[in-house]
Structures are given as C-alpha cells and as structure tokens.
Backbone:
C-alpha cells in the first residue's frame, strides 16, 4: 500500500463525526481534569478508559489521546492561578506563571501557556509522524548507563532554577534527594527510613510533596499575615498575550518542543523533567535571564512547550516498539489491547489504516486544544478575580481533597501538610523550592539506573562510558558544570569589584 | 416525655438497628480496594469484573486504587478494616503469594486475609531477545553456565523476580541467584523493555505482558509454565518439558476480605462470582488480553493460594532469597 493509500484509509477511518466528537470531548475532559489539582492527567485518562471499551478502536484511542493532551495543558491553569500544579508536568510553569498572576497578568500567562502548548503539541505530533521509526530505534539504545548519564546532565538544571544563590539551591536539592530515599530499596527490597510504618514503604507520594511544597506555604503565609496582599493588583485585567510576545518566545518554544520530543521518545522520563530542562535552557539562552523566576513570559512558554512536546512523542515508543513511555501511555496501551490491537512494528504493517487515522487525529487534536483551551481560559480566568481571602481557603480544601484522591490515603494528606511547613520555612529563608522538586524526581532515577548499570556489568565502572550516547552526556555535563562554576566565579568577582568601588 | 418513653423509644431504635444488622448483606455500597495503580493488569482486571459483579451484587461497588510498596499499602488498608464484608481487596499474585513468601518485613501475612475467590489465571512465559542466539531453555541453561546472564523483573518480591530464579532452578541450575544476575526495574513495562534493548538476557512474566512483543517478533518465547499451550506463544509448555512443578508458577487475581470475614458473606461472594464470570462481555474482554478465566470457590481459592505460597516459600528458603530488615 502506498503512502497515499494509507493516508486515505486513515482518513476514511477518522472521517466521521464520532471520531471528531470523541477527540473534542477528550480534550475538554482533559483540560478540566488537568485543571483540578490532584486529579492529574493520569487519573483523567484512567477514568476515561472504561468508556472506550465499547467504542470503535480508533474513536476510543482518540478520546484517550485527547484527554492526555488536554490534561497536560490543563495542569498549567491552576499552576498559574493558584500556584498549585494540576499535574506534575506543570510544576515548572509555576516558577514564572504564578508571579505573573500576582502582577495581574494571569491572562497573559495563561494565553502564552496555551499558545506554547499548542505549538509544542503540533511539533511533537509532526515528529511522531516523520521520525517515529528513527527515534524509536534511538530510544532503544537507552539502557541504564545511558539513562544515568542523561539524568546526571539533567541535574545541572538545578543551577538554572536556584535563583540568586547556588548554595541555597544546592541545599534545597540535597533535602529533596534525602526525602526521595524513603521507601523500599530497589535492589534488596529492604526498608529505608520507613520507621516501621507501612505507609512510608511506598515512599512519599509525589503529588503530595508537590502540592505541599508549592501551594501550602502560600496558605500558611496568608494565615500568618492575612492582610499582606492588600493593595496588590491581582485581577486578570485586559492584558492578553500578544503576537509580539509569541514571536519573542518562539525560539524557546521550538527548543522546548525539541527537548520534549527527545525526552518523550525515551521511555521512562516523563513530562516534568522535560519542562524543567526546557525552562533552564530557555533561561540560559535568554536576554532577560535576570527576570526568570520573577514573572517572565518566556519562562511560561518554555515550560509549557517542554511538557506538551512530550505528549506526542511518548507515542513513538508506544506505536513503534509497543513500549509505554510513561504511566499515561501505559494506560493507553491497555485500550489498544482491549481492542485486540498490538502496538509494535507489526502494527505499521497490519493496521496501517489505524496508524494513519491516529496521525490525522493527532494533528487535529492540536487545533482542538487551541479552541477548547481558549474557552477554558475564559471560564477559569474569573478565579484570578476572586479576593484572596476567599480564594485561599478554597484552595486549601481543593488541595486536601486532591491529595487524598490520588491514592485514597489520608497519610498523603499528612505528608502534604508536613511538606507545606518545610516549604513555608524554605520560603521564609529564601531557599528555592524548584531544586528540591527536581532532585526529588531525578534522584531515584539516578540511583536506580546507576545500580542497574552496576548489576548488568558485574560492578564494572566502564559500563558508564560504553558508547557514544554516554560520552555525549558526559561531555555536555562537564561543559555545563564548568560554565556554572565560571559564572559563579565571575559573579563573586563582580560583587567583590563593586565593593571595592563602593 | 417521661424517662420511660425515652427508654422505650431507645430500646425500639436499638431493636431496629439490630434487625438491620441481621438484614441481607449487602445493604450499602461495598468498597473495593485495588492495591495497584490505574491502568495496570490488576486494575483493568478489577474494573472489568466490576461491571457484571456490580449487577450480581445489586449494590454499587466503589472502586479505589490505594497504591504503593508493591501492593502492600492497599493490602494493609483491608487488613485493618472491619471484617463486615464492606471493605474487600483485589488481591494479586505479587501482593499475596510472592511478597509474603519473600519479605519478612511485610506488615501482613496470608492469615490476615480470607479469600472469597480467585477468578483469573495468567500463564507465565519466559522470553529472550531474538538477537541473543538463544532459542530454547537448553540454550539459556548453557549460557547461564558460561556466566554473565541477567534477568529483569518489576522489582524485588515481584512474581518476575521469583519466576526467573524458579525456572532456572527447575532446569538444573543449583544456585540460580549466583549463576544469573537479577536486575530489578520499576514496573513490568520497563522489565520487558530491558530484554528488548539488551540490558537483561531473559524475562519470565505473565504472557499477557509479553503478547504484543511476541506477536511483533521483538521477543522470542522459550517456555510457558502452564500445562496447556498459550495461544500465540510457540514455545514448549511445562508438560512438554516434564516439569509439573512449574505449573505453580502462574499469576492470578482474586478477591479477599479481612481474616474474620463471616462464612455467609464468603458464601455470598461465591454466588455472585459464579454469576459475574458467566458474563459474555467479561469473558471476551479478559480472554482477549490473554487471561484464563477459572472461577474458584472460597475454599478452592484459599487452598490454591496456600499451595502456591508454600511452594514459593520453600524455594525462597532454599535459595536464601528472603528479604529481612
């Protein structure tokens, strides 16, 4: 079958009203699900799954993909408006989105988040269609040693999100690494820092830590000093994102999308690290470097491009290898199997009409996301107008409910509050929370992949240098670390010079 | 109102409650705890049976995923619940026979639960990468003797961890833990990928987890542990190789309540499951995913799990695989 034939077969499959309805409904469900803290895109997809069993395979899968894509964008809405990421992937969006909302530019931040998400989504889908085979075989070269070096490199992000003091950033990261060690040891299965409690055996729940670290400190600060915010503008205003903004951020958006595509095509990384990596790269390259973390629209664009860039690309290992790249695609693979479809190389031969149908649907989904997202922003923007004394207590209720709902476990709510106090004291002593979070995500991955590498090689260190991919990451890690040290040295010398002058 | 009337009303009300307690179980929705994450094998199985089961029960089933620590967190939630039949658990081979056999630190034992059914059996298959040059169990055993063989699992105390060791031992490797290296990964998907990209030499896991890789010729099956062949898996069965002991090595999903579950409640579940598993829709969905539907009564289920646990426990003790501390 030629390309045109396959395309037409695909078109015939999705060229009906149900498929488009399912896609649109999916995006809408995803945006709303993602916007509810604690609900997260994963849960939204899992809850939609049973409804797809009775549908045509392509319709059902498009519905789930719509939920996925909508959810990843939807998470940015509460991240910007109430400093509570709706999904883990949108935690990087907080860094600049929330300061913008505080400044009365919530509309601009949300608009940029949407435009960046849609652009990244489109790039990601195109990458899937054009490079699926090539990227998949590349991704298959990623064993534990390659992962280890990639994550080692990713840890250099910490320098980018540390704010003014690298030392404070490092302190925050060490704290995150420490808490990430709680749970069962990967290789021996023994308990680590669980203090005999079965609840601790699973480690600290990621969403509980996330919400505790970002949203709860705001609530505590409000309780501490209920009138501190008075006099600050916090309305949405008429400020909407302009095309000039978009053009200025375009490079960061494309770079973020590429990072997303790259990390998305490798199974097991996920959208959150990608968003942070995209953010720190944008900051490194930007002219407005100093403004990052204080409400820079380019920061929002980069984070959202980073996480939505993953969404299409995670389907690369799924379709080309049959390997789910993250939790969400693991659920989607279930939908394939229920319909008797087996993702993998053979699917490109046996069910090529479904593959092309999916491709067409995915491209359309980016357009749907744009319109449904615009509508959602219009709906949610009133949150920014709610007086803070009313908003904050409702956020607290939402956080408690959301964290409980993740696992139906009251212990997680306790974790959230404990982390809330940690976050509050970090905030008071100007210790940034983002490095904590990055270390909390990447720390266990670094450890696991290191130990897996050692197991597979029989404790031979040379496995960490086994091929071009590892060399590449070692090189960029060293370059980045040297650059960070030099920048730090220069900053210190400037301060010294200024002191001499003064 | 005199004191007497109050007492009378009180006594009457108490009487009403007592009658209510004796009324037909169930009189309110039943909480069903799934100790694994959404979209996993247990979750899909649980949500598929929930449909016909809910009809049979006549009251809503409230499904909740309580995840963490390889199924332990959710299991503990049911262990500590009151045994009134309103909090039940979807138990799985990992959480209720491999983990108890392997982990001394587990906060529960099999005695803390009463099984009301096992309804799904998942055959286990072993597979290798086609480019490894291994085409049969004999090839694999020869390779193990040369050294450097690894196998992947979804974590310590998972079925995959035990399966790799058990299969090698059945094929005459005296000390499989020394002869082959176990590489634990995070989750079943990652474990299969490890064999796909050459990180590990072989994997033994539920056939449904391997089905798509086998169909796509990305992985080559070399053994299935059931006596019957598994559709789509062109590999010798445990009967073909004459090792009936391997038939113990299967995955399953069942339903359990806390230890003190009354007999009449267990009997009720037996009836409901008999109705639910006859559902056509349920049967097609499950068999398409590679499961074998085999309904066990409460007694059969308890005996089945006990036997499997003892087999595993014996192996774990012999090999010194038990995780202490």
Residues:
């Amino acid at each position: 079958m030629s390309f045109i034939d396959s395309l037409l077969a695909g078109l015939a499959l999705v060229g009906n009203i149900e498929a488009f309805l399912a896609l649109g409904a999916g995006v809408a469900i995803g945006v709303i699900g993602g916007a509810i803290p604690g609900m997260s895109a994963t849960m939204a997809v899992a809850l939609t799954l049973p409804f797809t069993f009775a549908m045509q395979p392509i319709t059902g899968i498009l519905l789930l993909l719509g939920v996925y894509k909508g959810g990843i964008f939807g998470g940015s809405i509460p991240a910007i408006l109430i400093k509570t990421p709706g999904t883990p992937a949108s935690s990087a969006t907080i860094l600049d989105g929330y300061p913008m909302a505080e400044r009365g530019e919530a509309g601009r931040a949300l608009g940029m988040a949407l435009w960046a998400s849609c652009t990244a989504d489109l790039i990601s889908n195109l990458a899937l269609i054009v490079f699926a085979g090539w990227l998949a075989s590349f991704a298959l070269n990623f064993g534990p040693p390659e992962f280890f070096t990639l994550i080692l490199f990713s840890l250099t992000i910490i320098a980018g999100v540390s704010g003014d003091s690298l030392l404070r950033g490092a302190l925050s990261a060490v704290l995150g690494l420490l808490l990430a060690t709680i749970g069962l040891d990967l290789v021996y299965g023994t308990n680590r820092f669980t203090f005999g409690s079965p609840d601790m055996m699973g480690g600290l729940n990621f969403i509980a830590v996330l919400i505790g670290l970002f949203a709860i400190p705001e609530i505590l600060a409000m309780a501490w000093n209920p009138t501190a915010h008075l006099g600050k503008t916090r309305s949405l205003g008429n400020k909407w994102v302009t095309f000039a903004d978009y053009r200025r951020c375009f490079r960061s958006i494309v770079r973020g999308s590429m990072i997303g595509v790259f990390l998305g095509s490798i199974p097991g990384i996920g959208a959150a690290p990608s968003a942070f990596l995209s953010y720190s790269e944008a900051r490194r390259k930007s002219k407005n470097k100093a403004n990052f973390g204080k409400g820079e629209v380019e920061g929002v664009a980069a984070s959202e491009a980073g996480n939505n860039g993953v969404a299409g690309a995670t389907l690369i290992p799924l379709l080309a290898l049959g390997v789910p790249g993250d939790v969400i695609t693991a659920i989607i693979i279930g939908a394939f199997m229920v319909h008797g479809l087996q993702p993998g190389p053979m699917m490109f031969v046996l069910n090529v009409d479904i593959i092309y149908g999916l491709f067409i649907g995915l491209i359309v989904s980016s357009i749907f996301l744009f319109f449904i997202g615009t509508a959602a922003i219009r709906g949610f923007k009133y949150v920014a107008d709610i007086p803070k004394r009313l908003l904050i207590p409702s956020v607290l209720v939402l956080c408690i409910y959301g964290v409980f709902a993740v696992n139906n476990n009251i212990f997680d709510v306790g974790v959230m509050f404990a982390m809330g106090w940690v976050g509050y004291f970090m905030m008071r002593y100007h210790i940034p929370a983002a490095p904590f979070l990055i270390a909390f995500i990447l720390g266990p991955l670094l450890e696991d992949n290191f130990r897996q590498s050692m197991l597979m090689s029989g404790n031979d260190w040379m496995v960490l240098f086994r091929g071009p991919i590892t060399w590449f990451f070692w090189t960029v890690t060293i370059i980045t670390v040297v650059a960070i040290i030099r920048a730090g040295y220069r900053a210190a010398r400037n301060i010294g010079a200024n002191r001499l002058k003064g | 109102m005199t004191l007497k009337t109050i007492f009378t009303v009180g006594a009457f009300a108490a009487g009403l409650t007592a009658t209510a307690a004796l009324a037909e179980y169930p009189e309110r929705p039943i909480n069903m705890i799934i100790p694994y994450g959404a979209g996993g094998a247990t979750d899909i199985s649980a949500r598929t049976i929930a449909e016909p089961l809910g009809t049979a029960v006549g009251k809503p089933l409230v499904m909740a995923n309580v995840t963490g620590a390889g199924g332990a967190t959710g299991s503990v939630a049911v262990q500590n619940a009151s045994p009134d039949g309103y909090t039940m658990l979807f138990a799985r081979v990992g959480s209720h026979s491999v983990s108890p056999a392997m982990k001394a630190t587990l906060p529960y034992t099999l005695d803390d639960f009463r099984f009301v059914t096992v309804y799904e059996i998942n055959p286990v298959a072993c597979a290798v990468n086609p480019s490894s040059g291994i085409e049969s169990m004999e090839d694999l055993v020869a390779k193990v003797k040369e050294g450097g063989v690894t196998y992947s699992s979804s974590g310590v105390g998972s079925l995959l961890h035990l399966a790799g060791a058990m299969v090698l031992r059945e094929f005459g490797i005296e000390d499989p833990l020394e002869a082959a290296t176990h590489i634990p990964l995070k989750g079943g998907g990652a474990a299969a990928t490890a064999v796909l990209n050459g990180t590990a030499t072989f994997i033994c896991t539920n056939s449904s987890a391997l089905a798509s890789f086998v169909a796509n010729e990305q992985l080559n099956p070399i053994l299935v542990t059931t006596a019957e062949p598994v559709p789509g898996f062109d590999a010798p069965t445990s009967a073909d190789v004459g090792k009936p002991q391997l038939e113990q090595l299967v995955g399953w999903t069942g339903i359990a309540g806390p230890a003190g579950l009354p007999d009449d409640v267990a009997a009720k579940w037996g009836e409901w499951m008999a109705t639910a598993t006859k559902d056509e829709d349920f049967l097609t969905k499950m068999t398409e995913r590679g499961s074998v539907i085999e309904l066990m009564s409460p007694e059969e289920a308890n005996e089945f799990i006990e036997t499997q646990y003892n087999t595993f426990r014996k192996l774990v003790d012999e090999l010194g695989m038990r995780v202490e501390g």
Observations:
- The mean pLDDT of chain A is 87.
- Chain A has one domain: 3-466.
- The radius of gyration of chain A is 22 Å.
- The beta strands of chain A are 183-184, 191-192.
